[in-house]
Write a structure and sequence with these properties.
Elements: H1 3-25, H2 35-44, H3 54-73, H4 88-98, H5 102-115, H6 121-137, H7 143-148, H8 156-186, E1 197-198, H9 214-217, H10 229-234, H11 239-252, H12 260-265, E2 282-285, E3 292-295, H13 302-320, H14 334-348, H15 351-356, H16 367-400, H17 408-420, E4 422-423, E5 428-429, H18 448-467, H19 489-501, H20 507-515, H21 523-542, E6 556-557
Parallel strand pairs: 1-4, 5-6
Antiparallel strand pairs: 2-3
Helix pairs in contact: 1-3, 3-6, 4-5, 8-16, 8-21, 11-13, 13-14, 13-19, 14-18, 16-17, 16-18, 18-19, 18-21, 19-20
Bound molecules: the ligand O=C(CCC(O)(O)[C@H](Cc1ccccc1)NC(=O)c1ccccc1)N[C@@H](Cc1c[nH]c2ccccc12)C(=O)O and zinc ion (ZN).
The ligand O=C(CCC(O)(O)[C@H](Cc1ccccc1)NC(=O)c1ccccc1)N[C@@H](Cc1c[nH]c2ccccc12)C(=O)O binds next to strand 2, helix 13 and helix 14.
Length: 560
């Protein structure tokens, strides 16, 4: 699909949506008795960005696809300038994950932002006007209200704020510990005792997950590492094999296998024919119950094996709700769609499971290997939470006007400093536009769905582990983080029941179908990490680490 073709089909679909909406608004659907039919009309009574007049919709699509193209075609030079065709995947991601040279990391971090975000600043300003215009045409006050309508939850933003408040103590302990280990590794000149952590040292281009720092941060360095990437390479893993293993996990639960169309039409590796493509992973539903596809520029690492499960979670959801009416062929809410694959991946990543599939040599039930494993999960899951929150807290502020268009970048860094406790390698300015350096901003993909997912996936995991008799809240010998639901048909049946609902019921009903609860609840996440939280508190105490970070150093100057 060329970008021109994409634009044309988006316009054509918008015309169809507008016609359908006109017909629906002529029906007095609110008095329909049948709950299911009424709910279908309720969904169809909302138009979204298709409410824009054609010329404005064309402008909206052109701005978005232009920013996405800038992001996906960006190339940067390496530190010594010997090559200037480094792309994000796999080149820059690999450097950010594995380099331990602060100078090289700083160069790549700055160069990426110079070639992506900085080039999008004006487009994004205009784009925000169009999102707000579309929102008002739908009777919403701004883009934030339009984006949050899908959650159909009155106090959604305060629920998110409350969940984050419950989790900041755990995050601050992890932050203090990681800062201490980075200071040991790089020295006090590079990493301070009480300040924010320099963003370019965290093993990821956006400091959104810190799992690549496991070598520096694992509690028991002499014990087995649960990052089995070397074993995967040694055993000749290919991207195809990684997806076959993921499929095998899903079918071991009795879930629906990937279809022939999936295997024939997916793109599981970056094409080497020079074709430009959006490498950011995605899953696609062609709404016929068979044609479902993943596009992922997969490399052979544990991180990409986890991402493969993430993407396949989307595909499984497509297949499970294929019998629903069209308007219900989507997640109970966007966070549910993001949580399916990650929930299963929590079982896959356990030492117990990695041993089952021959990626980890025989490890007796060693509490130190266990703590290394818990740390690796925390570096990805706990570190992610404030990032997931910042991404849309910033966009909500921009859409609502709380963040003015002259302060876009410095307000971004105020949130990154305040919530994540990180700072840029050099002071930024309003000439930069660092949010644009993360796919979901030019890609116009909302992000709070991932924060929701990282909360509810532990609720799902806990419920399925109880069903699989792999976890008992009163039996410390079987802690939640050691649970592996592999092969358990009961757990699979419970998950399938929820997935097959699609969006046919409000999301609390879907949540209840799996967990027996009707709301998002961080308790499951806290239970999962309890042993690590205790360990972190002791460790930080022993090392006299300071909890929290100073915020008095300037990270961004308002000069335009
Ligand atoms: O962006 C993604 C994966 C991409 C996606 O699968 O979520 C993809 C994003 C996308 C949306 C719309 C157009 C293009 C890309 N979402 C989907 O493909 C998708 C498909 C159907 C329904 C809902 C989402 N993950 C996030 C964070 C994340 C969550 N869980 C993870 C696990 C491992 C690694 C990263 C993550 C990130 O990389 O920052
Ligand atoms: Zn996803």
């Amino acid at each position: 699909m060329t970008s021109a073709g994409m634009l044309a089909s988006r316009l054509e679909y918008a015309r169809f949506e507008k016609d359908r909406w006109k017909q629906v608004t002529q029906v007095d659907w609110k008095s329909i008795k049948d709950e299911n039919v009424k709910r279908q009309f309720k969904v169809l009574s909302k138009l979204g960005t298709a409410a824009l007049p054609e010329d404005r919709l064309e402008k909206y699509d052109q701005l978005q696809s232009g920013m996405e193209r800038t992001y996906s075609t960006a190339r940067v030079c390496n530190l010594n300038g010997t090559s200037c065709d480094l792309s994000l995947e796999p080149d820059l991601s690999e450097i950010m994950a594995n380099s331990r040279d602060p100078e090289e990391l700083e160069h790549v971090w700055l160069a990426w932002r110079e070639n992506t975000g900085k080039k999008m600043r004006n487009s994004y300003k205009e784009f925000v006007e169009l999102i707000n215009e579309a929102a008002e045409l739908n009777g919403f006050s701004d883009g934030t209200e339009l984006w949050l309508d899908v959650y159909d939850t009155a106090d959604f933003q305060s629920q998110i704020a409350r969940l984050w408040d419950q989790l900041t103590p755990l995050y601050e302990q992890l932050h203090a510990y990681v800062r201490g280990r980075l200071r040991q590794h790089y020295g006090e000149e590079v990493v301070s005792r009480d300040g924010p952590i320099p963003a370019h040292l965290l093993g990821n281009m956006w400091s959104q997950s810190w799992g690549n720092l496991l070598d520096i941060c694992k509690p028991y360095p002499e014990k087995a590492s649960v990052d089995v990437t070397p074993q995967m390479k040694a055993q000749g893993y290919t991207p195809l094999k990684m997806f076959q293993m993921s499929d095998e996990f899903f079918t071991s639960l009795g879930l629906i296998p990937m279809t022939p169309e999936f295997w024939n039409r997916s793109i599981l590796e970056k094409p080497d024919d020079g074709r430009e493509l959006v490498c950011h992973a995605s899953a696609w539903d062609f709404y016929d119950g068979k044609d479902v596809r993943i596009k992922q520029c997969t490399v052979v690492t544990l991180e990409d094996l986890i991402t493969a499960h993430h993407e396949m979670g989307h595909i499984e959801y497509f297949l499970q709700y294929a019998g629903q009416p069209q308007v219900f062929k989507t997640g109970a809410n966007p966070g549910f769609h993001e949580a399916v694959g990650d929930t299963l991946a929590l079982s896959v990543a356990t030492p117990k499971h990695l041993k089952k599939i021959g990626l980890l040599e025989e490890v007796i039930n060693d509490p130190e290997v266990d703590m290394n494993f818990l740390m690796s999960v925390a570096l990805d899951k706990i570190a992610f939470l404030p990032f997931g929150y910042v991404m849309d807290k910033w966009r909500w502020g921009v859409f609502s006007g709380d963040i003015s268009e002259d302060d876009l970048n410095c307000e971004w860094w105020k949130l990154r400093l305040g919530l994540q406790g990180i700072e840029p390698p050099q002071v930024r300015s309003e000439m930069d536009f660092d949010p644009g350096a993360k796919y979901h901003i030019p890609g116009n993909v909302p992000y709070i769905r991932y924060f929701v997912s990282f909360i509810i996936q532990f609720q799902f995991h806990k419920a399925l582990c109880i069903t699989a008799n792999q976890y008992d809240p009163n039996d410390r010998a079987r802690p939640l983080h050691q649970c592996d639901i592999y092969n358990n048909k009961e757990a699979g049946k419970k998950l399938a029941k929820m997935l097959s609902m699609g969006a046919s019921k409000p999301w609390p009903d879907a949540m209840e179908a799996i967990t027996g609860q009707r709301e998002m609840d961080a308790t499951a996440l806290r239970d999962y990490f309890q042993p690590l939280e205790d360990w972190l508190k002791r460790e930080n105490q022993e090392n006299q680490e300071i909890i929290g970070w100073k915020t008095d150093e300037p990270v961004c100057t308002r000069e335009p």
